[in-house]
Write a structure and sequence with these properties.
two-stranded antiparallel sheet, globular, about 170 residues, Double Stranded RNA Binding Domain, three-stranded antiparallel beta sheet, about 35% helix, single chain, 5 strands
Length: about 170
């Protein structure tokens, strides 16, 4: 079973982290995890990288693909779309291997996790007045500590906390 510390709540939905999938895969006997680049980004394919990952255990092989383009990643990650496609492919293969049906947070395109009118680190104007969940606050505190970031918790609501977690996770990958 996946450790709860690897579950992130974004805008009311639960997502697993790649780190959590890899941890669980090792627990159940991951032997190897290999990635091949299937499509190199070019002008002809709108700078889309496609990677194929194969996760192997004693019981079998699990494979899937992942893609990334400048349109599906944060602008800071656009120069790293090959690595993002690789991470997405590995996350998908590991979800099959571990039988985790929950989407990995790394699989999300930026359009799925970005709120309108955002400033930097949690000062998003939002009509939602629901307070952030305890789990969201704990996740933000851990990520902020890891990144040595100052966060204004007074302005957060459930929606902006989810968006902030997404931004902090992107920063942590850099």
């Amino acid at each position: 079973m996946i450790n709860e510390k690897f579950i992130i709540n974004l805008q009311g939905k639960s997502f697993v982290t790649y780190e959590g999938l890899l941890d669980l895969a090792h627990q159940i006997g991951l032997v190897s995890l290999e990635v091949d680049l299937v499509q190199f980004p070019s002008e002809e394919n709108n700078m889309t990288a496609i990677a194929r990952a194969v996760a192997t255990t004693q019981k079998g092989r699990f494979s899937d693909i992942g893609d990334a383009s400048p349109r599906s990643v944060n602008s800071m990650l656009a120069p790293h779309i090959i690595r993002m496609a690789s991470t997405r492919a590995k996350a998908r293969a590991l979800r099959d291997l571990t039988n985790v049906g929950m989407t990995a947070v790394e699989e999300l395109s930026m359009e799925e996790g970005v709120a309108e009118g955002e400033d930097h680190y949690g000062t998003v104007e939002s009509p939602s007045s629901d307070p952030p969940t305890k789990r969201q606050i704990e996740t933000i505190k851990k990520l902020a500590d890891d990144l040595n970031k100052e966060i204004n918790y007074d302005t957060l609501n459930k929606r902006t906390a989810g968006t902030l977690i997404g931004k902090l996770l992107e920063d942590k990958k850099k």
